[in-house]
Amino acid sequence: MLHLPLEKIKPGMVTAQNIYNDRGVNYLASGIPMTELYLERLRELGIGSLTVFSTETEERSASNINLPRDILDKKTRTEALRNLRDIFDDVSRKKTINISLLQGSAQRILDDILMHQRDLVQLSDVRQHDTYTFAHSVNVAVLSALLGVSLGYSKGNLITLILGGLLHDIGKVIVPKEILNKPGHLTKEEFAVIRMHPSAGRAQIDLIKDEPRKHLLGLIAEQHHEHIDGRGYPFGLKADKIAQLARVVAIADVYDALTSQRSYKDPYPPHIAYNIMKNLTVGQFDQSMLELFFQNVAVYPITTVMETTVGIGIVKKVHFGKTLRPDICVFAERKGEFLKEPFMMELSEEPGVDILRVLNDDELLAFIEKKGVDPFVFLAENYPLRSYSAGKII
């Protein structure tokens, strides 16, 4: 599988993600061969990149592979998106948030999560830029709840966390779409408008009547851009002054933003998002929560192609709690020559094997075009498990 900009996608490549239009309707399902007509329509929808199978043969081989699935049932996600859009529309027309619209969705999201809580977050669907806020908010609710489960939260607190995730960006109704979807850098004045949305969200939530969770939901909306070191906004709160639920949502918010496609950027792969959040945002997050969060997220998702000290491999399985050390099928030497006998290796059991780098999609496309073989096909076979000892494969 490849994640490519639209200009590099050719007719005959097969979609590996669902594509939704501005009403949350599945416009193009995973597994559909691309045509020039589809590509033209995707450009009209404002979609700049897409994950695809390189050929129909590769897509057919996927039926033999345990590819990741959405943690949420399709109906649950679609309903949450529709209800959230209705709430944003109501608020934009000066109506009060109808929290009852989201309560059923929150319960169904929790039910799906508890049923699949050890399933790792690996892939996301593609949506129009105009619907980013809704899709993002549902993803934040899911990611927040997964972290909440790891933190041992009660079901009541998990529901609060899900509702808070769904409503964390409700204040963006005050932000003009041309700013939200601006493809270039924001001006100082435009960013000042963006920075108003946490307080605006709190104000909207404060208007809700007869909701016992209102105070906590308001704190999540108001504080999800605060940083542990006090450099966040709107108030520059530090550490324990930031509500715990808001600290959870802050992590989910940034991860989904980094790994999502926007009008101004392509999505970062999960391992890049991990490095950014671990190393380039020191002081922004609660570090103990961040460690737990990445036990729920596949840093190297299934189908990731990586160079290791023992050769080039493709990720076949990711274990809960061991997301930095997946199981890989090693199929080529580091110079790119195919092995006569590929083999499996459990990196979590091999401390002497280092992950050197992940092949980016341009490198992978060049590899496929040069070799005439997509590494994805190696996932369909069962190869012997090998170990690494004293500098040798045994």
UniProtKB/TrEMBL annotation:
<protein>
    <submittedName>
        <fullName>HD-GYP domain, c-di-GMP phosphodiesterase class II (Or its inactivated variant)</fullName>
    </submittedName>
</protein>
<feature type="domain" description="HD">
    <location>
        <begin position="133"/>
        <end position="258"/>
    </location>
</feature>
<dbReference type="InterPro" id="IPR003607">
    <property type="entry name" value="HD/PDEase_dom"/>
</dbReference>
<dbReference type="InterPro" id="IPR006674">
    <property type="entry name" value="HD_domain"/>
</dbReference>
<dbReference type="InterPro" id="IPR037522">
    <property type="entry name" value="HD_GYP_dom"/>
</dbReference>
<dbReference type="Pfam" id="PF13487">
    <property type="entry name" value="HD_5"/>
</dbReference>
<feature type="domain" description="HD-GYP">
    <location>
        <begin position="111"/>
        <end position="309"/>
    </location>
</feature>
